[in-house]
User: Fold these one by one.
Assistant:
Number 1:
Amino acid sequence: MAVTLPPGLPREALRKDAARNGLTRSRAAGRILRTATAAALAVWFVLPLVPLGLWVFADRWSYPAPLPQHWGLENVDSALSRGAATGFAGSLALGLAVSALATPLGVLAARSLAFHPSRWSALFSALLFAPLALPAFVTVFGLNVLLVRLQVPSSAGVVLVLTAYALPYTTYVMRLAFGAHDLGFEEEACTLGATRGQVFLRVQLPLIAPALARAAFLAFLVGWSDYLVTVLIGGGSLVTVPLLVASAAAGTGNDGIVAVLSLIALAPPLALLLFAGMTGRRRPGARP
């Protein structure tokens, strides 16, 4: 059967309209798929936290009851009496110290590898990433003996070793950032009379700020979540949340206390992740 086109409507316009409608449907389907995937991932990550949240306020929860029989804050009080506040402060200080040391060192190492390659670059990269390849237990034992003989304070030793473990992550993130970095912006600023400090503050720092935040976040996680280095090198002088969680989980009948300490351990990383995600969104009209 022949199809008669309306007068004044060329075939090319029909083709463009059909293509546009197909592209619109494709984008809508992709948006729905992304939304469904994000929702499924959110449920996957949030669902295990539900029992922890219930245990925090469960003074009594016996099998086979689906919900706690008695509600209260006894678990919170018990966790605080076990040193939860001290462990939180210790973990926070350790994470911030590792992040403050490993992030600038990673920036310097990554910039050197990106813009000043040499015949020793491969060896330098291998040394930087060696902490990830070597068995952690054996390495920490050897470093512990070395630090004791050098009479390094245990807390300082923990920070130094964790900084070495965080350095591969910060270097890798910043190496990717510098790989896409255009030195032409810095050279043009110097040509216009900017000093090195002005170039760093007004040109280089804004360009690498997102990668810098990611590197600092990863370094903070290394210090915040560590157990092995803190236990072996710290020797109990530094109390952190992972140590308290492991101590409570080693006993029986401490489910509520473990839940409280676990949520304390999850709170700062999740808060930082949400903050980074909210501040990292592009503003409307911002240039890519």
Number 2:
Amino acid sequence: MKVSYEQLKSEFKRVLLSRKVREDLAEDCATLFADTTQAGAYSHGINRFPRFIQQLENGDIVPEAEPTKELSLGAIEQWDAHQSIGNLTAQKMMDRAMEIADQFGIGVVALKNANHWMRGGGYGWQAAEKGYIGICWTNALAVMPPWGAKECRIGTNPLIIAVPSNPITMVDMSCSMYSYGMLEVNRLAGRQTLVDAGFDDEGNLTKDPATVEKNRRLLPMGFWKGSGLSIVLDMIATLLSNGLSTAAVTEDKDDEYCISQVFIAIEVDRLIDGKTKDEKLQRIIDYVKTAERADPNVDVRLPGHEFTTILADNKAHGIPVDDSVWEKLKSL
């Protein structure tokens, strides 16, 4: 089914207000959830919203909490989220990283006691729209086996890198081949994943999303490389924020909260003039796009460029929503 942006935002806000979230916070949070869904990141927009409400009701999310700065060291700052609303806090932290970058050329904000930020790519995009290089990542619950194991001990720990090209070029990637959100999207659509998503109960690679959702044997992105990347991102986020690691969150908490995140903004304009920047980026884009196609009917992929098309289409024709997901939202 298709719904309008206004319908979607109204439903999000209704549910938030019914849970006694302050009106201004409900408005801002509903806007971010609607923006994420309209941009095509359904797995971390409408599909994730019921999980967000569950954590709100459990007290894992403290809606009126405000993040506070704990330490400043030149271009690096440590902040404590105090379990505030994840997407609103992440947006503030990337704004703060850009403010620091205006002074030092680079700004690094490390955040502890954070909640799930929903669509991480939104914060990289936020920086790139304003002309900065945006980099951010988060640790998470242990929901993926490290390479060589079948027991979950590492997080999917998504990493985002956004470049202010035209259109914006952005990698928004889980350290697993598929996030659990994208497994759900594929399962709801009744389809297998494009490439192997994990292992079945016998240890064989599988493209069946339901199997991997159930046994939680996600395949790390790039096999041992994704596993290694997850571990070092967790280590850096833990050290920079002085917060909890994936191990600590998994062993010491009863759900995914009090996680650690990093937001980095790099100011480009004082490093290179605008015309030269645009020319260099366009040459890279053109060089990649003009490579001979493996399939004549499929464009060469540039990361993040599809979101510009998806957003325009969803604005013009409405936002596609799985019927069962819409009914679940309406019932909250």
Number 3:
Amino acid sequence: MTTPRTTRDRLQGLAPVIAPRTRLVVLGSFPSVASLQAQQYYAHPRNHFWPILSALWGVDLVRMPYVARLDVVRERGLGIWDVYASCRREGSLDSAIEEAEPNDLAGLGARLPLLQAFAHNGGESARSMRITRALGLAVYRLPSTSPANASWSFERKLAAWREVFARHDLL
């Protein structure tokens, strides 16, 4: 596996995690350095994404192999992707993202016949809400699961995520 550079070189994101029965797509901004190195969504050990899904679904995704996690995600009707396909960035902070190239969110929506909503994971992702709203689906802004979002407790994040997942029968 290659290690992405944390220089000003253009970084490439990850492919979407989707299935024909995807009803809700969670959109991050762009994978962290840890995620790019592992080629896995939300790979940073302090990111709350997998612990939140574990709590919502009563399944210990954190201890599962990544491929098995993705199987559970797809079976439950959840999709995972990012708003940016590529960018330049040093480190992992969203504030360091430059020259971002967006992913084809409209194209993704067209490929998913059961898609009901997009949920933006954090503020940088939410900057693309005008694009997702234009697709005619429900759109939510969720609190970031990033360890950089320390102002929200795990319990507060979990409650916000639970509300959105409940609206789309993902619980």
Number 4:
Amino acid sequence: MRISIQLLVTICIIVFACSKLEASPLSSSASSGTEAKLKLFAVEIKVGPNWDSSKAPNEQAFFKEHSTNLKKLREAGHIVMGARYSDIGLIIFSANSPEEVKAFMEKDPSMSAGTFKYEVHTFNVFYPGLVQSRSKE
């Protein structure tokens, strides 16, 4: 039985493609240790009862501390990404549980001061991909 060159090349391409899929960072089998156990959570941040609408956001009580807290959480690897839509902030956390995320948020002085309020939601990804920030114009 003779195998054509075209069939052999096709088989090699399929084997190569399958090996790349297994090595993909999006593959659950590629995740190891702690990363495989962590879940994603969406935190919606809205203005709280003590938000002063006569002031700019960066002039709000505890705004600087809020920004510093988010920076620390990002640098520690707890924040996957952050964004804003309308007047709502959205932060995606990687954590073990919603309680862990709530503990992160409760340490933010702007939350206890009522400048902001938040809600934690389980975040289930069904279209994985890449999100890149757009340049500010």
